[in-house]
Amino acid sequence: MSKILVIAEHLGGKLNSSTARAVSAAAAIKGDAIDVLVLSDAPDAIAAEAAKIEGVSRVLTVTKPENAHPLAAVLAPQIAKAADGYSYVFAPSTTFGKDIAPRVAALLGVAQVSDVMTVEAAHTFKRPIYAGNAIITVEADANHTVVATIRTASWSAAASGANAAPVEALTIDVPLPTHTRFVKLNQGSSDRPDLQSAAKVVSGGRGVGSTENFDIIYKFADKIGAAVGASRAAVDAGYCPNEMQVGQTGKIIAPELYMAIGISGAIQHLTGIKDAGTIVAINKDGEAPIFEVADFGLVGDLFKIIPELEVALG
Q1: Which residues form a coiled coil (predicted)?
Q2: pLDDT at site 78
Q3: What is the Cα–Cα distance from 121 to 88, expressed in whole angstroms?
Q4: What is the pLDDT of residue 91?
Q5: pLDDT digits over 174-207, tens only?
Q6: Chain-centre distance of CA 141, in angstroms?
Q7: Residues 138 and 125 sit within 8 Å (Cβ to Cβ)
Q8: Best exposed site among 15, 34, 152, 257 by fewest CB in 10 Å?
Q9: Which residues of the chain have pLDDT under 70?
Q10: What is the CB neighbour count within 10 angstroms for residue 76?
């Protein structure tokens, strides 16, 4: 019997959409059951959201005061214990999943499969390597539990609302480490759409020129109801905070529309947007690499083109 355990990502009492994307990957395994594990100090509301995801068989909850904050050192021993009897343990390939999955794999004594893009067979997966320049096919040992992170940009979120999976409480008795403790969470806040789940994203690069000039990116994004991103060069130059960074060392995203403004298109940036639906590039350098992947390209001064686009949009 092939069962898959998906680790729920959540924050502030709300389920992250990355969980539904991991469920989509789990469904591709065509196993016997997909269970979602919620670890929290108050999991009820989160579990109720998870229970609505199509394809989920059960939602399992572990309630402990220590689970109030997602500390990998604390959660991993509980996940490893809960994974007993499961053939697969999936987590989204986000900061949360990349932190937890390696610890779970180590505790289970198995090798981790990272950034699963497609499921080719029960134990065969495709994942990117060399900053997305190549795709490798990997085969996991069928005799051991497969611990994998799911590249969320490569999977659409499983539908939600029609399902009503049962919610069951688990009692897990494992010693929890005390050498790691939560101090505080420093998190950027914005009224704009979330960068990783937005349907439209407008990103600025080094070509924007300065922090003050980056206002043109914010205003245009607001005009079309888009999230705002940035290249690493723009972040390193101090034009915007690092939580806005898109690319190999930033956020991997797959919006329906991605607009790269003043971004040359280094391979590390292209890795983060390769799954976008439509890519629009605006750059004064007609030889910029970004134009090789763009569906639409405009060569010219962004400070002239953007105002013209705003006028055209009305």
Answers
A1: none
A2: 98
A3: 13
A4: 98
A5: 999 988 889 988 876 777 888 888 999 999 999 9
A6: 26
A7: yes
A8: 257
A9: 188
A10: 24
CA 211 to chain centre: 27
User: Which pLDDT belongs to residue 176?
Assistant: 92
Our CA dihedral for 295, 264, 283, 244, rounded to 10 degrees, sits at 90
Can you tell me the distance from the alpha carbon of 253 to that of 169, in angstroms, rounded to the nearest whole number?
Answer: 33
What's the pLDDT score for residue 131? 76
> How would DSSP label each residue in the chain?
--EEEEEPPEETTEE-THHHHHHHHHHHTT-SEEEEEEEESS-HHHHHHHHTBTT--EEEEEE-GGGGS--HHHHHHHHHHHTTT-SEEEEESSHHHHHHHHHHHHHHT-PEEEEE-EEEETTEEEEEEGGGTEEEEEE--TTSPEEEEE-GGGSPPPPBSS----EEE---------S-----------SSPPTTT-SEEEEE-GGG-STTTTHHHHHHHHHHT-EEEE-HHHHHTTSS-GGGBBSTTSB----SEEEEES----HHHHHTTTT-SEEEEEES-TT-THHHH-SEEEES-HHHHHHHHHHHH-
- Tokens 């403004």 locate to 261
pTM: 0.87
Type of residue numbered 103 = R
Are 252 and 230 within 8 A, CB to CB?
no
Domains of the chain: 3-169 (3.40.50.620), 200-313 (3.40.50.1220)
Please say whether the beta carbons of 31 and 2 come within 8 A: yes
* Crossing angle of helices 302-313 and 215-224, rounded to 10°: 20
Residues 244 and 229: beta-carbon distance below 8 Å: yes
Residue 162, pLDDT score: 86
